[in-house]
Write a structure and sequence with these properties.
With about 150 residues, the protein is an alpha/beta fold. The chain contains 6 helices and 5 strands; from the N terminus they run αβααββββααα. Strands 1, 2, 3, 4 and 5 form a 5-stranded mixed β-sheet that branches. Helix 2 packs antiparallel against helix 3. The mean pLDDT is about 90.
Length: about 150
Amino acid sequence: MNLKTVITAGTVDLNLKGSTKKEIINELLDILVRTGKIQDKGAALAAVLDREEKISTGMKHGIAIPHGKCAAITDLVACIGISENPVDFDSLDHQPCRIFIMTLSPVEKTGPHLQFLAEVSLLFKSSEKRDEILNAKTPEEVLEILTE
């Protein structure tokens, strides 16, 4: 999977303001609504929150990957948000998060969803790449870091 086909400069926000998990999820969904990637924010929110109730998508190293499967989605969509302030996301390592990557996919399509999550998780095993993302000044710079 080529991340550039899923994530664009328009779906990258370097200035998330939320201070809670739910606020961050709402901001990420707003990115997808604003860019026309999703039309039914309510259904998407329900899918992501349902997934969060099962187990938190807060990973390690300050990264959270909130995601869900939603009947209102026809193709995999994704966005990235960066927060200047760390946010408690019930992470596996109990550390707050600053990098948030959201993906939503159709209920009946499993392959692209799993491929996206695997590719993203591999990218962020590198502390250098995480630092570069956190220090990026533009959405285009984030895209470049993700796809190099």
